[in-house]
Fold this protein.
Amino acid sequence: MENSHIVTIEGLVKRYPIGKGHFTALENINLAFGTGEFAGVVGPSGSGKTTLLNIIGSLDSPSEGSARVLGKSVGLLSHKQSAHLRKNNMGFIFQTYNLLPVYTVYENVEFPLLLLKMGLSDRRKAVLDALEWVGLTDKIKSKPAQLSGGECQRVAIARAMVKKPQLVLADEPTANLDAANSHHILQTMEKLNEELKTTFIFATHDDKVIKYLKRKITLEDGKVVNDEIVKK
Amino acid sequence: MTAIKLALRNLIGAGLRTWLNVFVLALILILIIWHYGIIDGWNRMAIRDMIAWEIGGGQIWTENYDPYDPFTLEDSHRVLPQSFKDEIEKGNMAPILITQASIYPQGRIMSILLKGIDPSQQVSELPTDKLLEGDEDIPAIIGTGMARDSKLNTGDYVTVRWRDVDGTFDAAEVHIVGVFRCDVPAVDNGQMWIPIAKLQEMTQMPGEATLLVTDKDYTWTGEEAGWVLRDHDYLLQEMREMIKMKKVGGSVFYVILMLLAMLAVFDTQVLSIFRRQKEIGTYMAMGMTRGQVIRLFTVEGAMHSTLAAVLGAIPGIPFLIWMEKVGFAMPAGSDSLGMAISEKIYPVYSIGLIISVMLIVIITTTIVSYLPSRKIAKMNPTEAIKGKLQ
């Protein structure tokens, strides 16, 4: 069973220094995520959701305990190794989309593939496929400033999915979207999760997202207070 | 390669900010190349004129002669040896006898160098054939600089006073038979040219000369007691030093211009890194290492100069070629600088000049772009993603 987990977290503690003391953002977290999960870490603001996601995404490291992601212990990775892990295996979706403003939709989605040094024709096909998944093939030449919030987030999904990563981390992906757009992008992600078997881990406190989750992990004050399968 | 591709996209995407920097850098590139082209053209022109008018293929001086010490003139004259006479006969050398004298134009006294030269010589471009015209007692030619200073013109008579070999003063009327235009002050300012035979007679130095100018296609390899060869390296040394000084002087101006342009690039970089923190965080989240992000920003900054070189070439090449054809008119009064300078200077651009100027600009821009980019290495990606100031 352990082998099918792409994320294993044991005794994870994360502290931030504040003045002479410290603030504990995460305390004794033990979790495991398997391939193809559509899971969410939910809880109020300041509960540690983003911190947990950052550690899983190897953007941050634990103060204590371990977080193994795709067989690599995040705390022991160098900056280069972390970058390599993210480049090859992870996609990120942010609350504020984080699209590159001077790039077109096509170029934004193409970006992760350029880092992977994929050939031009394969790259083109992958980008067009990704844009088709999110229904934005007609916006290829648009720049982020010309898109609506929902469209921007769909571009961000396409960018996260274009390299077909094993793990997608989405931090409050619907926080800036209206209900219709939220449902649209969640349906898109749900579809991709089913078709590509990509593991999705959300950090959210949005009920609209929570409704789509198959597994809900509730964090409160940096501790897991509930971990339940809500859908089969 | 990826960094270059991405940097180019970012630069072009940044719009006006990029094009302003590129415009300034392109302007500076063109100006520096043009300026150095002018100096190189001046150098080449000055050397060519000095060879044609003054130094030929080299000069052979009497051993005491020092052009900067007029007191040496008294002892700087010797009877021409037979070997020199043979070469003069063949047209390979022209003897020049120099003595100090005074002229009295319009009642004023003016110290000059009275130079005797063979009127039929072909070694220098001095129009000495004019000295053969007329049946004047003492015909003389002067340059435009001398004519301006002394207010003498063709056809004027002026009293000249000199001392002979024994130190006895004598005076006579000299007839100005020609005024020549020449860019070499050393044959013009404060000088009067008369036939050498006449000067030898006036100074009682028959068959003597102070120096000989050799033909530019002739090299003297012999040896004569009391005579020393001064080759191009020796004779042009000062000219080259002066040109070098002009280059250094000009460089100060361009260093200031470069500093302004570099300040613009530095400012753009600092602003970019400050404003694009979210983007930097996103790059890291997508798998770029800090080193790659630093490289991307450095390449982005450095590409300002590459773009400037490419885009600057569009107006720059026609402008530089046009200047090469029409020349640059020197401002009035520049002929009194004391060095060979023509009314127009035609710039000369060598490949070495263009490549070295471009390399200096590109390397400087790269360094200036790299310095603020190092801040990225200290950024926390989780904070950068949110665009939080760090």
